[in-house]
Specification:
With 475 residues, this protein is an alpha+beta fold. The protein has 3 domains: 46 residues; 171 residues, no CATH class; 237 residues, no CATH class. The protein is built from 11 helices and 16 strands. It has a 6-stranded mixed beta sheet, with helices on both faces. It has a 4-stranded antiparallel beta sheet with strand order 8-7-11-14, with no helix packed on it. A two-stranded antiparallel sheet has the order 1-2. A hairpin with a 2-residue loop joins strand 1 and strand 2.
Length: 475
């Protein structure tokens, strides 16, 4: 007897029973067909979109802003020049093949000013953020215009008549000049600016000139978003900024961290706190000396000098790593560390040089604060690394084998850095041996002789103090 809903199929000597699948309703088949059609349209639209070249809204590679910051009485004048190629997603009136209709572009220029400048510039008076400014002028300028070389010519250019419509100008090849006016309490207040302009292009540089009343103009130049820039900072504001800068610089400087790692690897388990203290202190004193010397201009300013220092830093890492593998005498290791610390100090100075413009009149404060930040960063690294290395040598690797393996890994990294940095240095011509070069070399030689004499005098006391820990050799 056949069960309801079952069909019987015979193949050769086998009999197979399957349940009959009920037919799908017509509306369900129609819904599935429309869903498949929708998927096809979405895929086609995505393919066309990805295949289309981006034209109107390409992000420019390099953008440079010029800003005059002038407080006067109860108002603050902000004169800004920006390339119009950075003003994306703004509809400008055009004619023909895309020429800008200047006489009809005033509203579009003001909209672009609000969207790309006012929304990204925060101005502070005595730590209070100022309300949005009034747009006094918004005028297009030609790329060849040089009015923004001085405040007076920039202001005169902003007040001049707009360019005529007879010029065939593509909108994204011109410049936008803007005069913004902020209400302030006094032109003697403390001012600061936060320029969040890094989204204007792939690389954004800002040249800002601060024109306070009765004081010489102060020039700033920064890249991307430098954070809050105080135009006339107090000493404690400078100290805090540069302590943070030094702290993050040592944590982000992989080459300095690897050098520090090489210094402490052989001393991490044995509890030799005296040699460790002397070695780390010698590194600190040495890089502080060259950091101060660089800030006061007692180093070469040639283009080949920074890549030379970067190459030497890689060599110091390789040397210390190799020394760890063959063993080193504690009593001379601190001298080598001192010499290498002089080289690393120059590396610190390159990171500090661009930030010194934010120190105002507090140069010494900024240098000391940056150095303190570096030392705090080193202390944090030591606090983390020493227990980790001690546990590694206690539970995972024998001390001698662990020192060799870790040092070999560091040496491998330093070797690749050395090759890359030598290639960068080789692109610079060899310095000419002239009177200026010889005079600079003599000054450097005299400085190293004086430092060598001081190290020789200190070596006796250091040897006696470290000898209290017993072993004189680092395995």
């Amino acid at each position: 007897m056949t069960s309801p809903g079952w069909g019987h199929y015979t193949h050769s000597n086998f009999r197979l029973s399957v349940r009959e699948v009920p037919k799908k309703p017509a509306y369900f088949r129609l819904l599935m067909n429309r869903f498949q059609l929708l998927i096809i349209w979405i895929v086609a639209a995505l393919a066309v979109t990805l295949a289309m070249p981006t034209q109107a809204h390409d992000i420019p590679a390099d953008v440079r802003l010029n800003i005059f910051f002038k407080p006067a009485g109860n108002k603050l004048e902000l004169l800004v020049r920006i390339p119009m190629s950075a003003l994306r997603e703004v509809d400008f009136p055009k004619r023909g093949p895309g020429y800008l209709i200047v006489s009809q572009a005033d509203q579009a220029l003001r909209n672009a000013t609000r969207q790309w400048l006012i929304d990204n510039l925060d101005i502070y008076e005595n730590d209070a953020r100022l309300p949005p400014p009034r747009i006094i002028h918004a005028r297009m300028a030609l790329p060849s215009d040089t009015a923004f070389t001085a405040y007076e010519s920039a202001m005169a250019n902003l007040k001049s008549p707009p360019l005529p419509d007879t010029f065939d100008l593509y909108w994204n090849q011109q410049l936008l000049d803007v005069l913004l006016e902020y209400p302030i309490q006094s032109d003697r207040s403390e001012f600061a600016i936060r320029a969040r302009v890094d989204r204007l292009g792939l690389k954004v540089a800002t040249a800002l000139r601060f024109l306070p009343p009765g004081v010489a103009t102060r020039a700033f130049e920064f890249h991307g978003d430098p954070g809050l820039v105080r135009l006339d900072p107090r000493w404690h504001q400078v100290a805090w900024r540069f302590v943070a800068s030094g702290f993050w610089h040592i944590l982000e400087g992989i080459d300095h961290l690897l050098f520090l790692l090489c210094l402490i690897i052989p001393l991490s388990k044995r509890g030799q706190w005296r040699p460790l203290l002397v070695i780390v202190t010698s590194f600190t004193v040495a890089h502080s000396i060259t950091l101060l010397a660089s800030a006061f201009g007692f180093v070469p300013d040639a283009l080949w000098f920074p890549p030379l220092i970067e190459l030497l830093i890689a060599l110091t890492i390789i040397y210390m790593a190799l020394e760890n593998t063959v063993g080193s005498n504690i009593q001379r290791r601190w001298i080598i560390t001192f010499a290498f610390g002089l080289i690393h100090g120059f590396g610190f100075s390159f990171a500090l040089s661009e930030s010194l413009q934010f120190a105002g009149d507090h140069l010494i404060t900024s240098l000391l604060a940056f150095n303190i930040g570096v030392e705090i960063g080193q202390l944090v690294v030591l606090i983390v690394l020493l227990p980790v290395l001690a546990l590694l040598f206690k539970h995972a690797l024998a001390e001698k084998i662990g020192i060799i393996i870790l040092s070999a890994l560091v040496a491998h990294t330093g070797w690749h850095w050395m090759l890359e940095r030598f290639d960068a240095l080789s692109k610079f011509p060899f310095p000419a041996i002239d009177a200026t070069f010889l005079a600079s070399a003599m000054r450097g030689l005299m400085a190293f002789i004086v430092l060598g004499a001081l190290v020789w005098l200190a070596n006796g006391a250091v040897r006696r103090w470290m000898a209290l820990d017993g072993d004189k050799n680092i395995p």
